[in-house]
User: Fold this.
Amino acid sequence: QVLAANADALWIVVPLHTEPNSRRIERTVALVADSGAEPLIVLTKTDLVDDPAEAMAQVRVAAPGVEIVAVSAHRGDLDPLRERLTPGLTAALTGPSGAGKSSLVNALLGEELLPVGEVREWDGRGRHVTTTRRLLPVPGGALLLDTPGLRSLGLTTGAAPENAFPEIAALIAQCRWSDCHHDREPECAVRDALEAGTLDEDRWAAWGKLQRELAYESRRGDALAEAAEKRKWKAIHAAAHAREAFRRKNR
Assistant:
């Protein structure tokens, strides 16, 4: 299903009371690339950790080049977000249940408009309090779109993994062969980087998984398009036969 439409910015909300999910962050950044929205990673609940620097470093590896801010709705230190809410801007928030999206929106609005749920102690997750999307005006002329918590994110054929993995895209461009499979080919920049330890193996595995998913979605889309085309022409031929039969009957 569509997460949001006509958003200028997508705030990827990552709570600090649990370890950041790097794979989820990579996937979200890859999806945002196709939308035209500007991604921003928002680390929330900084009041629950002594120092957010370690989590910020981990997130920076998962999303190189994407700006990161750390805030706390509880403390009210939301200036990094408020200064982005310029007149006419629409910012959509996405993240898992319990990430603090509704709390952020309430704090930015200055009133408790959205219900806020409890977070389970044993896994740090919240239950789905927000079940619908709500577009809310912010003082100053911006709009915030609160969305339900997502358990998983599927890819679309327009997703761009290279936006989430710029270092891998750069290495692939350096391979000798344009159709390099990064397996046994000579002068493969990716394999050289893996052997040298300059390319993170988990990142390479995540890249491969996203590429396989995109290939599957592309094949699935082609099959669906082909089936729809066959149904269309079948209907056209049936209508033509019906018209011919009617014409002959009424001669």
Observations:
- The chain has a mean pLDDT of 81.
